[in-house]
Structures are given as structure tokens and as C-alpha cells.
Amino acid sequence: KILILDFGSQYTQLIARRVREQQVYCELHPNDVSADFIREFNPQGIILSGGPNSVYEEETPRAPQVVFDLGVPVLGICYGMQTMAAQLGGKVENAHKREFGYAEVRARGHSKLLDGIQDSVNAEGHGLLDVWMSHGDKVTELPTGFKVIAANDATPIAGMGDDARRFYGVQFHPEVTHTVRGRDLFVRFVRDICGCRGDWNMPDYVTEAIEKVRAQVGKDEVILGLSGGVDSSVVAALLHKAIGDQLTCVFVDNGLLRLNEAEQVMQTFARNLGVKVIHVDASAQFMGHLAGVTDPEQKRRIIGREFVEVFQAEAQKLPKARWLAQGTIYPDVIESAGAKTKKAHTIKSHHNVGGLPETLNLKLCEPLRELFKDEVRELGIALGLPHEMVYRHPFPGPGLGVRILGEVKQEYADLLRRADAIFIDELRAADWYEKTSQAFAVFLPVKSVGVMGDGRTYDYVVALRAVETQDFMTARWAQLPYELLGRVANRIVNEVRGINRVTYDITGKPPGTIEWE
Ligand code: XMP
């Protein structure tokens, strides 16, 4: 197993992920954990993360000396390399010219860490590696025993290594995907140099996660807002396994869910898994407050506010609850950290269960905080959740409220639910569901003229939207086959009375957003 010491980099979790990808167990701890803890942990290797500080300033964090005394391999990344250099007798200085973004480094000499890991080879036969850099300081003198293993003009010591002690440092960030061969570097370090076997897997993670939750909440009761989405579903399954009846889920039906969604959630969790789920049908309350409201942001605010209200009322009925469980995953953690520092325009005010107020007086239990989406899915499968639930497209918190343009009406929601279900049905049948990242129907409250049989129709329009995306920040419209689109349009117009026209949205993001409101 690997110990990762965190010096405060934004990417520390990514390091953990790269190690887990090798099916090697790792734990992430602050850089100032005690020497005893490190000895007891008994790591096969240690990774020192990057961090925002400057090594040459006073009182900036250091790695505990024991890291270098244990006789295990150590990999320092960015600040981790700098502190390693400084602590072992080298020198670190301000780089004057900061290096930020893509860079190319040249492999120098041979090292167990980098040999054969390259994107291309230059005329002199040196391996060239495309890497991602982000630093203002650099190592200017090697500690004894080290040699340069990577260099470029801006950073003559971009990598250093001591094969005898198995200490390595890299100035670039192998953990980010922009460093294309970064993964190979982790394989090399974790598997080859540290000798970790790679036999850790999701079922092991389940066991560990269950123990962690038990240790965290003890005998206390926990409350969870279950939405039926992937993240909250996985939390529900995990907590149910860990603490059984100490968990109560609250499932709020706001009247803006997909067809049969409430039924499916109750089936999967309450009936199949035996989870305690309180099903609150609050659709009348939501619809009531939405009546007459057409502004998208106002609609979002109302739906968010009502959710909190309903949830709070339910929480008050459970006076013994001490914890609020949430399906926060790692990208949410980064996003909200970024949101605090960045002054971005509010395009849409997102609403999540995360917006629940502090007045609930509950402590937070967020067992997925360290995981990426694909890991959450793997965990869901390991916990026995159905494939369709775990690989479901995301669904926005305000639900159909942002897919019915303008005023939300019961009639519109009912029409949209049926049209949407047909679209999803056909996508699944044609094996296109999992090739798209998100797909849904949008209700347009305008009427157009049509002809069916010999009669004139004058009915509403539905737009279909399907996108492909990695991170939902940018997206391409999915090039669905014409026959598939044709089938969907036919079925919607034939089966959903009240809709006589179907269009397909071919706008990317940007300039469009994925949802229409
Ligand atoms: P947009 O429309 O901004 O959507 O391109 C990007 C992704 O976010 C989802 N989305 C939401 N998710 N609460 C959520 O939990 C919200 O208020 C919300 N609004 C949009 C959207 O479905 C897409 O996946």
C-alpha cells in the first residue's frame, strides 16, 4: 500500500485516483502526520504531493524525516520534489519565470522511473515527454546521490532520481490527464519500483468504506435525501449496508420527475433492498408555487427553496438524526472550491441537496467525497445496484421544471414525461443510450398546425436533445441515426395526444447549454 502525503495541491486526489487505478490501496494524509503513524502504516512507497507554498520560506511544510528513513521508495511531485530536495541537502529557488501549462521535457541519463516512458525521441536519441507544469519555484542544486532524470530549458532539473535509495522527484504533474504518459509513470513507480501487487479492488473498497462510515456515525441516526440519481443512490446502498436501520432516506416527489421515477426508486430501495425510505409526494405544493412563474432563474429558486422546506419538515420528524448524508463526489468538491475563488458569471443557479441550510444542525457524512464519477459507478455495481440505475444519465435537481419552457403546468409535465420516456426507450433499444451522455425531451409551450389522418391538428412541440460530453462543461450534440430520430418522432406524435411536432436540437455547448433553461 501507498501513503500519499498532502501538501495542499489541488491535484492530490488525482494522485490517489491514479494509484487506485493500479488496483493498489492508498491513503491520503496531511503532510504533518506523526512519524509513528507513518511507521505503523508501513507503506511500500510514499508520494509527496504538490502544494502552494515555497520551500525556501520559513515555516512552510516539510515531510516528516521518517519518510526518508524508512527505506521505501519516495516520489515527490512539484512541491513534493522541492521539499525532498531541500530536506536532503539540495537547493530550491524562485524560478523568476513561472512555467504553467504544457511543456516538453527531455529524459536525461537513465532512471528506473522514466526509462522508456516518452512521447517521442529527438535527434540525439533522448526520450521526449509532454508534461503539464505549474510552478514558480525550482530545484537548482541536487542533493547528494541524485542525478538529473528530466530537463528542459526553463527547468534544467525537471526530474531527479536516486536509483539506489529509490527516491524520485518530478517538477511536472504526472497525475493530471494533460500529462499523457502520466499513468505509465504511476504504473512504474507503484508497481515496479514499490512492488505493489495490484490486488486491491472495489469489493475491498466497499469493506473499507463501510468500516469508515460505522466509525464515523457510531450508533447515531442518519438522514439522506435520495433523489434516484447515481450519487445519492450509491450513498443509500452503502449506508444501508453499513448501518442498516440507522439510515432513513427522504425521497421528495416534486411533480417534476421522469415517468414512473418515484415508483422505480421505491421499488429498488424500499422493496428490494429494504431501505427505510419516506416517500413525500409534494407535487401539489411545488406546482402551486410555480403557477404563473415564467422566469427560469425564479423557477429554479422556487424549486430549490421548496425542496429545502419539504426536506426540513421531514428531518424535524426524525429528532434522533444527527447526520445528514450527501452524495458529494470529488468533482463537486473541486468545483465548489473553484467557485469560491473564481468570479464566474452565474449562467444558471444550480440546486442540489448540497444547498441544505445549516439550521438543520446535522453533521455531514459524505462517503463519496474522494471518488470520481466512474469510481462511484463501480462502487454502485459492487454494492449490487442495478446497472440501469448506476449508468443512468444525470438529471438536474429542478427536474422537468427546466425542461418545460416558461410556466410549468401539470398538463405540460404529463405530456413531457411520456414523450421523454419514448425517446429514452428507443435510445436504449437502439443501443444509443450509453453512447450519449445525456438525452431528454424538452416541452415547448407553442402550438403548430399539423395533419393526422384527414384532420387538422393544432398541438404542442417537443424538442429532443442528446449530447456527448466528458465533463458537461462543453458538449457536442449527438449524431443520432436519422432512422432512430424518425422512429422516436413517429411514436411521440402517434402515442402522445397533444403533441404533433418533434424537432431535434443541434446546438452545441457552448453556445447552447445542455438544458434549455
Ligand atoms: P447546463 O444546462 O448548464 O447543464 O449545460 C450542465 C449539466 O448540469 C445539469 N444541471 C443541473 N444539475 N442541479 C443539478 O444537479 C441543477 O440545478 C442543474 N441544472 C443543470 C444538466 O442536466 C447537465 O447535466
Structure notes:
The chain is 34% helix and 25% strand. Helix 14 (410-429) packs antiparallel against helix 15. It is globular. The protein folds into 3 domains: 2-193, 3-Layer(aba) Sandwich (Rossmann fold); 202-390, 3-Layer(aba) Sandwich (Rossmann fold), CATH 3.40.50.620; 409-504, GMP Synthetase, Chain A, domain 3 (2-Layer Sandwich). By secondary structure, the protein is of the alpha/beta class. The strands form 3 sheets. The protein has a 10-stranded mixed sheet, with helices on both faces. It has 15 helices and 19 strands. The protein has helices at 12-21, 35-41, 66-69, 79-87, 182-193, 202-217, 230-243, 261-273, 283-290, 296-316, 330-341, 373-382, 387-390, 410-429, 482-495, and strands at residues 2-6, 26-30, 45-48, 74-77, 91-107, 120-121, 127-141, 147-151, 159-162, 167-170, 221-225, 247-253, 276-281, 321-325, 363-365, 438-452, 455-468, 476-477, 499-504. Bound molecules: xanthosine-5'-monophosphate (XMP). Xanthosine-5'-monophosphate (XMP) binds next to loops. Residues 348, 350-352, 394, 396-398, 438, 472, 509, 513-515 line the site of xanthosine-5'-monophosphate. Keywords: ATP-binding, Glutamine amidotransferase, GMP biosynthesis, Ligase, Nucleotide-binding, Purine biosynthesis. This is GMP synthase [glutamine-hydrolyzing]. It catalyses: XMP + L-glutamine + ATP + H2O = GMP + L-glutamate + AMP + diphosphate + 2 H(+). Catalyzes the synthesis of GMP from XMP. ATP binds at residues 227-233.
